Amino acid sequence: MITVALPKGAxxxxxxxxxxxxxxxxxxxxxxxxxxxxxxxxxGTAKAMLVRAQDVPVYVEYGQAQVGIVGYDVLxxxxxxxxxxxxxxxxxxxxxxxxxxxxKYQESRLLPPHGRVASKFVxxxxxxxxxxxxxxxIIPLYGSVELGPITGMSEAIVxxxxxxxxxxxxxxIEIDVLFHSTxxxxxxxxxxxxxxxxxxDWLNQLMNNQ
Length: 210
Known about the structure:
Blueprint: E1 2-7, H1 12-20, E2 38-40, E3 46-51, H2 56-61, E4 67-71, H3 72-78, E5 83-87, E6 93-100, E7 115-119, H4 122-131, E8 136-140, H5 147-151, E9 156-161, H6 165-169, E10 172-181, E11 183-187, H7 189-194, H8 199-208
Parallel strand pairs: 1-3, 1-4, 7-8, 7-9
Antiparallel strand pairs: 2-3, 4-11, 5-11, 6-9, 6-10
């Protein structure tokens, strides 16, 4: 039986829709009254677990799930040992650098050397500023990152942006985009190579059902 890791949050409904399109029904996770973290498809072909988006590649890498759907941002941040199979082309957003609207730093490269940048995407931020050859201090924050510049703790933030509404409401503006992110289909490398439980057939259907 195939085990699928599904991400809580913004990607969940579209992910479930994709599996439903190939005959696997995990819609019970969309029921607000459902508290199960693992359910089985009615056909008995597969089961799915509902996990935090950041944990999806972990479950796949360690083999507790053979398949998962996760944002490209998580893959860039975590760098897991998984097979990245397809861009599913939903959940579009971007990883951006943002500063207060009245900041004198209107480009990332203009930030002061050894300035402070707050982010929950520590590795993405560090890699980006390393490419710019600009030494900065990355401050890890895992709540409302926007508070970094608001409180004066940091000159900028690196965060995931969809509509930009949260930034605007907190007086911040985007100044640079690191990369765009969409939902990606991933698989456990060995399971994929061995085609365990006809995994490849299911994945091909999923990749073709876009």
